[in-house]
Specification:
Number of helices: 13
Bound molecules: S-adenosylmethionine
Strand content: 15-25%
CATH superfamily of the largest domain: Vaccinia Virus protein VP39
Shape: globular
Oligomer: single chain
CATH class of the largest domain: Alpha Beta
Distance between the termini: 60 Å
CATH topology of the largest domain: Rossmann fold
Largest sheet: 8 strands, mixed
Order of helices and strands: HHHHHEHEEHEHEHEHEEHEHEEHE
Helix content: 25-40%
Low-confidence stretches: none
Radius of gyration: 21 Å
Mean pLDDT: 96
């Protein structure tokens, strides 16, 4: 890697902070510099992400460029041979406090140190056709997972006619599983309460074959604007947007067949793709976010139809969020009955209302999903 690349990566690292995550700084940096080739941009990204992935091994007394070079060496050795790092050493991949709130396993840590996969979501039923057209795609499996494609090629996917034609979205496999287990039916009425930029709204709308309605709310108007652009590209019209801050006053009086609360969370499940967050999340964030999740769920419950289903998903794996939130909500609302969820990665598995998706098992982000029926 050239000195210029290392120094640009170092500038990104020096500018990044909790408030300005490295991936956002990196995007801005690459956009603002003219004359950076696609290959150089990729090399800078690799250097920045290697720095955070191997941060626990670095000598912080060295200069940032020196640390980046060391991180790249460690990264290369590990990608060639995972045994270059012993199980005991792997604990350096995450902050020490994490073992108090996550089930830390060697498999998880090894996954965190590996390069993340790129996943596409083809439109319902179009996985194999899209894979043939794009090439370099591997389907995640049969049945429900057939439209989830792992892309292993080098094309700029955003420039493909298939992307512009709304034939696929970039969406992590675990996020795709959220839509799949919600399993909305055409003609139903759903509420995607924390819709953000619409990753899951679009999936729900597609699974409903553009029939019925998905209310998409978020507290950030700019995110909903982005959702509208994506929906237009996909030719999806069975949705409406509304602002919702999470307060007791709901965005509509409509009652729903299904509600998805894809809640704001600590994002521990994205630590493979987003290693900077390993060093910025604090234990207090986890506690506060768990409280917010309970509040959002507790307020959303009121909008369920009788026999409507409530889904709670978070891309995190801390117990305070996830299972402890489920316990609290189940206790607070005796009318909610656990709703069993299939595991698309293990169709023979006994169904429970809590699905843990670990990166080492799925090849995607860590994710937790739970569901109840309004009994
Ligand atoms: C995990 S993200 C949602 C991702 C989105 N569902 C997707 O699949 O692309 C959580 C979203 O919750 C929103 N949010 C955060 N705090 C909120 C609150 N108090 N009330 C409502 N939405 C909130 C954020 O703006 C963010 O878009």
């Amino acid at each position: 890697m050239t000195e210029k690349i290392i120094h640009t990566a170092a500038e990104v690292v020096e500018r990044a902070s909790k408030e300005k995550p490295a991936d956002a700084v990196l995007r801005t940096e690459l956009r603002s510099r003219t004359g950076i080739s696609r290959e150089d941009g990729r090399a800078i990204s690799i250097a920045v992400f290697a720095y955070y992935r191997w941060h626990g091994w670095l000598n912080l007394k060295e200069t940032v460029p020196q640390q980046i070079r060391r991180a790249l060496e460690l990264n290369e050795a590990f990608q060639k041979n995972q045994l270059s790092v012993s199980d005991a050493e792997l604990l350096r991949a995450v902050p020490g406090w994490i073992k108090d709130c996550v089930e830390v396993s060697t498999g998880w840590l090894r996954a965190l140190q590996s390069e993340p996969a790129l996943w596409l979501r083809a439109r319902v039923g179009q996985g194999s056709e899209l894979a043939r057209e794009l090439g370099d795609c591997r389907s995640a499996g049969a049945g429900a997972l057939a439209d989830a494609l792992r892309y292993e090629g080098t094309k700029d996917l955003f420039r493909t006619p298939q992307f512009h034609g709304g034939r696929f979205e970039l969406q992590d496999i675990s996020s795709q599983v959220v839509g799949l287990v919600c399993d909305p039916k055409p003609g139903e009425t759903w509420w995607d309460a924390c819709a953000g930029e619409g990753g899951k709204t679009l999936h729900l709308g597609d699974l409903m074959r553009n029939k019925g309605l998905v209310w998409a709310s978020d507290r950030a108007a700019w995110r909903l604007q982005q959702l509208k652009r994506r929906a237009a590209r996909a030719g999806l019209f069975n949705y409406r947007t509304a602002l919702w801050t999470g307060a007791t006053k709901l965005p509509t009086k409509t009652k729903f067949d299904g509600i998805l609360v894809d809640a704001p969370c600590s994002g521990l499940g994205t630590w493979q793709r987003n290693p900077h967050a390993r060093w910025t999340v604090r234990p207090v964030d986890i506690v506060e976010l768990a409280e917010l999740q309970k509040r959002l769920l507790g307020n959303a419950v009121e909008a369920l139809k009788p026999a409507g289903r409530l889904f709670y998903s978070v891309c995190t794996l801390s117990r305070n969020e996830t299972s402890e939130v489920v316990e609290a909500i189940t206790k607070q609302f005796p009318k909610l009955k656990p709703w069993p969820l299939p595991n698309p990665f293990d169709e023979g598995a006994a169904e429970t209302n809590q699905l843990w998706l670990w990166p080492e098992k799925t090849g995607g982000n860590g994710m937790f999903i739970a569901a109840w029926e309004n009994g």
